[in-house]
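In the design runs reported in the main text, the only information available to the sequence generator was the tokenized backbone. The following block is the verbatim input for one such run; it is reproduced so that readers can re-run the procedure and compare outputs position by position.
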């Protein structure tokens, strides 16, 4: 059993001893700590906290414990039921709530679940705020409400429709163009909440023919829920059988979007953000942001339109902070996460789908043809396992010294930018490993570059 406490939330496996996983006892402690943090820091005038969950098998159990704890801390809870992560984020703002909790372990397998913590703006807590919640949980420095001050539960099942309506109202979403294109679309919702919301979104956008895979939201995922090519063989085959124009795959909480070409080939998760940014930048001048481990293709597209590209440390909260700092018009992460400020500051696959379909309809080309218009890069993802006593920071410093002649970024590990490729080294927050991401114009070159850094790291760790 596993329990991982970090600034991005608390995730763990279900079952086992109280301290071994995400047990009901652990849930109470961390939710009470979060409620204490919100009481101290939130400036919202309401006493409401929004709770949404994905379709995981443990979701109903977790929701009961979370809501009971929040009302026990004196908060009113807006229970929006099964909802995507971006839906819950939007609901916090629409409710003028003082916070929100999303019960999802994102792309992790079914035995996992997590508490994801939102502030009063429906955005994830930053590093300092997350650390404060963890400290409160560790010290158990919280008090429950007396009987006259207990909170109440407000059930509101309308937020799926409100989210879809907000997408349709975006200026850059052209429903008429999408409807006129008569798209045939395949979707894979991996037996989670996407199976509820994606068909409704597509019908609202004017799509008449939808081919569904794994849209029953029972939470017993039919395949590994991370939307990577090796997990998407079924929809790849369906694309050709159904003669679909485009395929969309989401993770269990619907904040990541993978796209499948009409020929069954992967569009590439990195290129979800690239394509949507291409569309936005062709109509709205401005800057873009992605994390350090994302494709250089976004930089190339941004510069084509006269904008400036900025890199942020890995993590959605870091990307959002950088986007606000540089007033970016679009941003996100190379894992298929689209952050469009005109909607809200959170990764949102619904927004990504609507913008991509508008782009595709206006381009009047096949998805594979659209993909061919973008710079072609390949990313290799490798790792080096180290013994716990190895000083990872010292190794990264030695790497910086060795490659000092090149452009170095060290806001999150070490990224070395060469003229035609890059490599990014980051230490894991949860295990003694260094992750090595490298990108080049061929996969062989990307893997060779990553392998070269692995050899250097092993030499420095002796």
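Verbatim output:
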């Amino acid at each position: 059993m596993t329990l991982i406490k970090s600034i991005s939330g608390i995730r763990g496996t279900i079952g086992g001893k109280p301290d071994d996983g995400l047990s009901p006892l652990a849930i109470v402690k961390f939710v009470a700590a979060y409620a204490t943090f919100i009481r101290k820091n939130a400036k919202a005038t309401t006493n409401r906290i929004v709770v949404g969950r994905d379709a995981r098998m443990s979701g109903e159990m977790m929701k009961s414990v979370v809501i009971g704890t929040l009302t026990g801390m004196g908060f009113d809870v807006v229970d929006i039921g099964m909802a995507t992560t971006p839906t819950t984020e939007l609901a916090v703002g629409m409710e003028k709530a003082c916070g929100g909790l999303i019960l999802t372990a994102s792309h992790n397998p079914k035995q996992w679940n997590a508490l994801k913590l939102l502030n009063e703006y429906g955005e994830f807590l930053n590093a300092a705020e997350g650390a404060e919640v963890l400290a409160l949980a560790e010290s158990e420095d919280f008090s429950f409400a007396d009987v006259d001050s207990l909170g109440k539960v407000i059930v509101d099942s309308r937020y799926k429709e409100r989210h879809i309506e907000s997408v349709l109202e975006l200026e850059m979403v052209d429903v008429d163009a999408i409807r006129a294109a008569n798209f045939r679309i395949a979707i894979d919702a991996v037996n989670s909440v996407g199976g509820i919301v994606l068909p409704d979104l597509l019908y609202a956008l004017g799509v008449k023919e939808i081919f569904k895979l794994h849209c029953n939201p029972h939470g017993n995922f039919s395949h590994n829920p991370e939307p990577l090519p090796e997990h998407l063989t079924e929809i790849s085959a369906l694309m050709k059988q159904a003669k679909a124009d485009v395929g969309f795959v989401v993770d269990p909480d619907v904040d990541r979007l993978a796209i499948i070409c009409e020929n069954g080939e992967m569009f590439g998760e990195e290129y979800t953000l690239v394509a949507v940014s291409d569309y936005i930048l062709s109509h709205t001048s401005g800057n873009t942001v992605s994390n350090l481990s994302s494709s250089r293709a976004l930089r190339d597209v941004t510069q084509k339109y006269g904008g400036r590209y900025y890199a942020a440390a890995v993590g959605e909260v870091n990307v959002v902070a950088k986007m606000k700092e540089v007033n970016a018009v679009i941003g996100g992460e190379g894992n298929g996460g689209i952050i469009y400020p005109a909607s809200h500051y959170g990764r949102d696959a619904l927004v990504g789908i609507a913008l991509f379909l508008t782009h595709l309809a206006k381009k009047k080309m096949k998805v594979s043809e659209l993909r061919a218009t973008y710079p072609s890069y390949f990313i290799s993802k490798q790792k080096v396992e180290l013994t716990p006593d190895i000083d990872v920071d010292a190794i990264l410093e030695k790497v910086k010294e060795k490659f000092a002649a090149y452009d170095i970024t060290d806001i999150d590990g070490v990224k070395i930018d060469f003229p035609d490729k890059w490599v990014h080294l980051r230490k894991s927050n949860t295990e003694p490993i260094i992750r090595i991401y490298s990108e080049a114009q061929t996969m062989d070159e990307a893997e060779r570059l990553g392998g070269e850094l692995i050899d250097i790291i092993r030499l420095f760790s002796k």
